[in-house]
Amino acid sequence: MAGLADPDRLAPIRASAARRIVAAFGAHPHLIAGTGRFDTAVVSGFGGAVVVKGGAEGVHAAAVPGLDLGIALKIDDGAGRAAETAMAALLDRYTEAGPDARAALAPYLDRPVPNAAGDIVGSVRPAAGWPG
Questions:
Q1: Do the Cβ atoms of 69 and 96 come closer than 8 Å?
Q2: Contact 61, 83 (CB under 8 A)
Q3: Strands 51-54, 69-74: parallel, antiparallel or unpaired by DSSP?
Q4: Left, alpha or beta for 13 (phi > 0: left; psi -120 to 50: alpha)?
Q5: Tens digit of pLDDT for each residue in 7-35?
Q6: Where are the domains of the chain?
Q7: Those residues with Cβ within 8 angstroms of residue 33's Cβ, 6 or more apart along the chain or in another chain
Q8: Which of 16, 66, 74, 114 makes a 20 to 30 Å CA pair with 27?
Q9: How far from 34 is each of 50, 71, 78, 107, CA to CA, in Å?
Q10: Is residue 64 classed as helix, strand or coil in its secondary structure?
């Protein structure tokens, strides 16, 4: 992800590929994960200025080309919900998110947890002060 964020440090052919990948994410965010999904919402909200992609078992990665920043995280229990919340908190902390980006991140920064009856019994949110 750091290579996608700062392709100038890559070999020319890889740098060209990295730039194409970032441009494709920005041009077609709906193809990343689908409608109503974290990755699609965040890339759309940031107007393509951030690349985000989840993987299996609580893995999530992001590239922020404007900051030359790559982020990768893994949630030990494999929970995608926790990975999305952690990534939203990191992007909220380390980027200068505009109104559309903040709106895209907001639902993931404090996610209600319903029980089988639909009652809210808790929430998934970053710990106070995290990330520092």
A1: no
A2: no
A3: unpaired
A4: alpha
A5: 999 999 999 999 999 999 999 999 999 99
A6: 2-111
A7: 39, 40, 53, 54
A8: 74
A9: 17, 22, 20, 17
A10: strand
